[in-house]
Amino acid sequence: GEYRYRVLAQNPNSDFGKIISINLLTNEKKIISLGHRNPQGLYFNDETNTLISTEHGPSGGDEINVLNFDSVNYQVTIPNYGWPQSSYGKHYYQKKKDSRLELSPLKKSHSKHGFIEPIKYFTPSVGISEIIGLPSNFNNIDENQYIVGTMGTGKKVKEGMLSLFYFIYDSKK
After folding, report:
1. Which of 35, 79, 93, 143 is deepest in the core (most CB within 10 A)?
2. Preceding omega of 135 cis (within 30 degrees of 0)
C-alpha cells in the first residue's frame, strides 16, 4: 500500500502503492503494477496468466482489479490502477485543510484519465479481504470462478458487509 503517502503510489521510483514481483533466488524486484491504495488479497490464475487483486479504497471504492500478463509490455508501460488520482470512494476527512487532498482528487472514472478500471468496486466500502480461485469446472461451470471475503467497515455493519462474494470472470472479454 501507500501508507498515507498517497502521491508515492504514482511515483515509479517508490515501492509505495505498487504490486511487486520478487525473484527469491536473486532478490531482484520488478514493479508489476502501480496506483494501489491498500491491496488485501492476490490470486494468480496460471491458466489465464492473470493476477486478481482486492484493494481497500478510501471511504467507499473497495476494488477488484485484474492484471492480464499476456497483454502487458513492461518495456513500454507499467499497468496503472489510478490511486490517488481516481477512485470511486472519497477521502475520509475532506473538510480538513490538507495539501495531500489537492494532490489526490479522486476522479470517479479511471479510464477517462488513462488508468485501468476495476472489474468491480464497492460503494459503500465492504472491508474487502482475501480472494481465492475455485477449481476448474467447479459446479460444472467451465469459467474462472472466485470468492472474495469482506470484513465490514465502521461501527454500523450493513447488509453485504460481512459476506462472501462469488463471481465468474470471463478473461476473454
Report:
1. 35
2. no
Q: How far apart are the first and last CA of the chain?
A: 28
Q: Which residues pair with 42 in a beta bridge?
A: 53
The mean predicted confidence, pLDDT, of the chain is 90
Largest CA distance in the chain: 54
pLDDT tens, 138-162?
888 778 999 999 988 877 777 777 8
The three cell numbers locating residue 86: 481516481
Number of H helices, E strands in the chain: 1, 9
pTM (two decimals):
0.90
What is the C-alpha to C-alpha distance for residues 68 and 17, in angstroms, rounded to an integer? Answer: 19
List phi, psi (to 5°) of 159: -55, 135
Burial of 97 (0-12, 13-18, 19+ CB in 10 A): exposed
